[in-house]
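Last lecture ended with a question: if I hand you only a sequence, what can you say about the shape of the protein? Today we answer it with a concrete record. The protein is Trk system potassium uptake protein TrkH. Below, first the input exactly as provided, then the predicted structure, then a couple of comments.
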Amino acid sequence: MRTSGVLNLLGKLLMLLSLTLIVPIPFSLYYDDGMLRSFVLSSLIGAGSGGLLLLLFPPEEDLGYREGFAIVTLSWLAMAFLGALPYTVSGEIPSFVDSYFEAMSGFTTTGSTILVTVEDLPNSLLFWRSLTQWLGGMGIIVLTIAVMPLLKVGGTQLFHAEMPGPTKDRLAPRIQGTARILWTVYVFFTLVETILLMAGGIGFFDAVCHSLTTLATGGFSTHTASIAYFESPYVEGVIIVFMLLAGINFTLHFHAMTGNFRTVFKNEELRFYLAIVFVSTLIITVAVTVADPVHDILGNFRDAMFIVASLVTTTGYGTADYDLWPPVCLMVIVVLMFIGGCAGSTSGGIKSVRILLLFKYALLQLRRLVHPHQVQTIKLGAIRVPQEILIAILGFFALYLVFFFLASIVVTATGVDILTGTSAVITTLSNVGPGFKIVGPTQNFSTLPELAKIILIVCMLAGRLELYTVVVLLTPVFWRMARKPSLRTFSLDNRQSGPAARITTSKDNLHE
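The predicted structure:
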């Protein structure tokens, strides 16, 4: 592996992130919250670390997928370190493990927090907390590819290792153009939501912070009570709409904006995703109403719709304590946490397209039992899904379950009860935010042992980078191959839109 090239690019990314640490300074000056020194010092540490890497390690060309995996994983670890500095330097979160947990939760858009009272943080630090989620939502590396040509070498490898979902759509001939288009849509939605929230009576600061975390499907709020603080059906409605939009493949938003509605309406994953939202909302509304007929059914529907949208998109906002709902609702919630949003969105989870293709594959096996000699294929819309994609999805699903069980064992071994421990792993691995009991929607992660927090930090990173990017670095074959020349890669381009439009593989089978 070309270590010098990896560390050189890591230095450039650190210098870029150090500039983002300057963004909260105007808020610090306006609110006079005493955070100026903390942000300046944190930015200097980031710039100094990045500059040192640039001086010590010259750039290299011809970076491959192995270097892409290493750069992405190391970058997220470094980003969380820099993101934690303002919390630690200011003394607002004295424990570095807690600071790192909060920063990793931000950049991975998980939304799990160790804060007991969110309002205790200075406003500029609350803004930084929201900004980390917004940057992590589309991916800081995709942002770098979009605005700077410095990652021109290896850009494709970084894009494929960074973007969530089993396949990646390309909207422009160059990967840099695709990243710019995605970020343009992302920024546009953020601005529109900010305007709509302010129209509902929310102040500028709260509107901006919640727009940043909604489009990132992050869920960090400026209030401990989350969205319930505003007590506004209008605000809840706006946030529901933008959560659901953020859970949709962003390439479909681009097609809609350019008038290509046919592609949007024909997208099978989108229809499956919306069906999940509708059915889940209906089940929870009926169950809550039957369990407590005194409550208004419209109020139950509103709460159910918000929680379903929040959890299926892995945003993690709250308006109701679902820990108090009937057991059937909790089962639905667990399923939603695992599923997540669409591929190519800012959501976490397994992704709707993978679940859909797993169903199709199971039905195919049933049909083969009845018609063993009939040639049958699986299609997603009008596109035939190649066998390697199905194998990759089965592999991902198996890896996801193994990772979940191992992490749950370790977390519960630290003394955490089984419901809290397993739900904490689910919610961090799927980048959802709240879990059940001690880490439920009205609680936080502050009381967990430090070892449990460290395991959950790993879960956040692995979930955000879709497991393979992180796990592949832990395999002996990766490091054996890292000492050999890169093998050639090839791509199969169907020249169609949709989640299965572009498949990229490699002969060393390190990329799905």
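Comments.
1. The chain is about 60% helix and 5% strand.
2. The longest strand covers residues 489-493.
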